[in-house]
Design a protein that fits this description.
alpha/beta; Rossmann fold; Acetylcholine Binding Protein, Chain: A; 4 domains; seven-stranded mixed sheet
Length: 780
Amino acid sequence: MNSYSSSILLKLKFSWKKLNSPLTLAIAFVLSLIFFLGRGISLQKQAVIYVAVVGPTGDNISGIEMVQGAQLYLDRVNTEGGVNGKKVELLVFDDGNDPQVAAQKATEIAQSTFALAVLGHLYSSTSTAAGKIYQKLGIPAISGSATDNFVTKDNDWYFRVIFNNSLQASFIANYSQKILEQQNASIIYSDDSYGITLKDSFANTFAGLGGNIKQQWAIDANAVNFEAQQQQIIQDLLQSQDERGIIFCATHNDDVVDLIVQMKRKGLDYPLIGADSLGSVAFAQKFQGYREAKKTLGYFTNSIYAVSPIIFDVANQQAQQFRNDYIKQYRQQPGWTAATYYDAAAIAIEAIKQAQVGESQDNLAQQRDRVRDALTQIDRLENSIEGVTGNLYFDRDGNVNKSVYIGTFNQQKFISTFTQLQPVENISIYSDINTAIKSGEILLVDGKYMHRTNIVYTGIDINEIRNLDEKTSSYLVDFYLWFRFQGDISADHIEFTNYGTDRMDSGDKLELDEPIGEETIDDITYRVYRVKADFKEKFRFNDYPFDRQQLAIRFRHSNLTRDNLIYVIDVVGMRDTIAQEVINNWKESKVFETISDWKVIAVNFFSDTLINDSILGNPRLFGSDTDLRYSRFNTVIKIKRDTISFTIKNLLPLLFFVSVSYLILFLPFEFISVEAVSGTLLAIVFFHLSLLEGLPEGIGYVVALDYGFYIIYSLIGLELLLVVIGNKPEIKKNAQAIKRLMLIVRIIFPTILLISAIALFINYGTFEGKVEGISNSLEN
């Protein structure tokens, strides 16, 4: 506010006459408006932090996912207030997957923009070319897709949030031989650094395990003789079909689409396993134009194996929230590239925060250097960043240490295979490591010990939810539950971790009845159950009656830990797993018909880890810091109270009391008595207590409804103050003073009411962005 405005305020001295003046009120309103508009403009002038993303961002699916994944995270950051109070903007550059163009774009970003970090590039070849520039000109870069070992090797300015080629190729070789039981293998590889490093690592590992590499073919989609290369591969495969073994595709996904089509049409049913470039729904979608794929969903890709940094059926709640947000924002399913660049943006922003950019007088080069240093300090699990693909932290070479997931295609969906390899967190629990390796209990992959873990596809279909009891935070759910698994495992020996209510004995357990359906085909067992029981969550009523609660069904295996078994979402068997589609189906089937006072705002199906601090006397764990960790399957439904319905049913009497209290002020002063005002106060107090009776006893904290009543109590107190002051002898005898006093209270009463209503709306209003921003807080 300028000095002229301040002088006006000083001249507006308080007097009864001026208070009654419309001109005075108008001036006060205008000055307030100027103040708030000026405040809004000043907020818009705050500095901006820039982050660049570079890749084939034109019409390449993965390139588009890079931008959208990063932008989704930055939108979240800006919604929450930005970085150190500054908005973050994304600068987008297109390198066309061309190494020369990538180097040019890297120079442009480093020299001509204020970007503090770079996210990209998509390919290893473009990343390697651009990496030299980033190292020379001093700007940190983070890739979520370039897996070639040489991208980060000897470059302390380059980082990545995805595994490298050495790890994934070694993983694929172990999986092919020890899980898929393939002793022979052949390799098709892209004739570039990405394909060659994958090919060499796979071949060395597979041969080292005692396997045989039968043949290797190089392929180059940019070569003039590309079609001839494909035809040669087909001819070689036709000549000796029984000897080639499993075929490892160490290629970019575009390089093998036509080749796979020809192989399928020729009846060449070799098992195929691909690197990360094949491990995405985007790869399966490349076959949609072929006639066979139009007739049979997934005709060319069904049963192809591939590795990926994330598979959504086994992903955690944060990943499921990311998936739902991505679909809502971009109207399409995210691939792993979107997820890894969301993570790349997350760790870049965290480094910028830790570097305290903007809080010093450092120049751009110094700021970039501090961001790079902050990235290097995110170097262990204890200070890692929780991303949608796992915990993110870097080793000394700028690589992340994380799991490799392997999936297979089923009807164009990429799902987890029945067997996964999970890192052994504490190898000391094995007294004889060599024996454990020989027995197949654990595997050694690229120098890391891994468990052989069974995957159980799990689905839930809810029929009805009713009997929502706010006093006990419980509800009854009627639902179908099914399991699909391979081998002889007790997948259905489960324990519901949130079963029951306060009325039940804490020792009660819910056991599954006999399955209502069961069949086993090719060693794959399917069992379905119907469950109808009470469940309980910890409701929080701080925002009552604007509160949002969650209803959940949670279970784990009774005795098998996460090392042995993981429950994952049956994305093929469930009708829908996308939040909005599930909610729409529930509306049609009237799942919440009997709970009319609540609305469903979100639903998540996800797997997480339940930690048991006790080792339950397991001799193997004596003297170790290892906890028992169980895979827990969760269905979490987030609901919000229908405020309009609540108001109509419960608060109309309160509105009547407030209206009567205000109308009293228009009676002649002599008719306004302490008894009349106190009577209204008592009625409101009893009404207040009656509304709180629906909540659990002794909740021990103030709820939003209390604040509303406190405001009304203050208004009643204002009326009592009016009576007290007005009955003072010197005031009571002065009719003009009584008139002015009544006018003041008539103005203050609705003003307080209006300001309070606005404040309550701001704090508890139904802004969708706010709902989504805090939805995960209920889980904690």
